[in-house]
Design goal:
single chain, five-stranded mixed sheet, 11 helices
Length: about 290
């Protein structure tokens, strides 16, 4: 029997039997027993930190890992070792959910194809110089909701997004129109827009619209899903931190959850590399 268990038994029966007699019976010291009781009476030293982590996880929907929690705490003057943060998160069941991976698909031969100008160079030195785009699908109780989005590689912000019940060329074109409308004054002279070889991006409508706006298309190579990894990365984050954690009974509910999450992602979700939210970094460059 472990010493700690013996101490607990002695404590439980202390009003019925002599503490000294029980210590002799269990072959433990009286001083050790009383030292153990003092520790029981002391408050848990991790309680205060756990309360702050709980507050953070409530705000972010329990999506932050220990690195982002560490940054969030530091911004509030609470400085702890990242390993301590991780230990307390495990102790109090405050860990974020595990990310799910997406299955990749190959696309066939289509009309317009473009050179891979991005070439996996996912860094940008100014806003609106390199965008990546893609479409993903969200399953709901009323059918599939398609999400088209454009992400800026400068700060990883979502510049524009559109949702629809059909995976059409117009869904993609409307996303581009919205992005250009929002960022028109700030768009770089040579803006690259990178996509995969999906039907919408090889269409004539896509070619015509990018020409009209002076956007230079860039396209992933066939069978090279990692060429557009930054677009896929956002969908992976969205699905693990939002979509997979709630039951989407209706299309409207899915739209509402996605609207809320993208606002949180742009304005509140801390990026580990910069310790800033996407829009905080974007505002610094303005």
């Amino acid at each position: 029997m472990r010493t700690k268990v013996k101490y607990l038994i002695i404590w439980r029966y202390k009003n019925k039997y002599s503490v000294s007699a029980m210590c002799r019976f269990f072959e433990v010291s009286r001083s050790g027993y009383y030292d153990f009781m003092k520790k029981i009476d002391q408050p848990d030293k991790d309680t205060s930190l756990a309360e702050q982590i709980t507050l953070c996880q409530e705000r972010c929907g329990k999506t932050y890992g220990y690195r982002r929690i560490h940054i969030w705490l530091g911004k509030r003057g609470i400085h702890r070792n990242p390993k301590t943060v991780l230990r307390v998160m495990k102790k109090y069941n405050l860990l974020s959910e595990i990310r799910r991976h997406r299955r990749w698909k190959k696309m066939g031969e289509h009309a317009h194809k473009y050179e891979n100008l991005l070439n996996r160079n996912f860094s940008a030195d100014r806003p609106n110089s390199k965008w990546v785009t893609d479409i993903s699908y969200i399953h709901t109780g009323e059918g599939v909701l398609y999400l088209s989005m454009i992400r800026d590689l400068f700060d990883n912000s979502i510049v524009a997004y559109k949702m629809g019940t059909e995976q059409t060329v117009n869904l993609v074109l409307d996303t581009i129109r919205l992005a250009v409308k929002k960022e028109k004054k700030e768009i770089a002279a040579e803006l690259q827009l990178h996509s995969d070889q999906g039907l919408q991006y090889t269409s004539h409508g896509y070619f015509t619209l990018t020409q009209e706006y002076g956007i230079t298309p860039s396209m992933s190579r066939r069978g090279n899903c990692y060429d557009n990894a930054m677009a896929e990365n956002f969908f992976s984050i969205l699905k693990s931190e939002c979509v997979s954690r709630c039951k989407l009974d209706t299309l409207d509910k899915a739209r509402s959850f996605i609207d809320q999450y993208i606002h949180f992602y742009n304005h509140e979700r801390i990026q580990v590399k910069t310790c800033l939210t996407p829009f905080e970094k974007r505002s610094q460059a303005a």
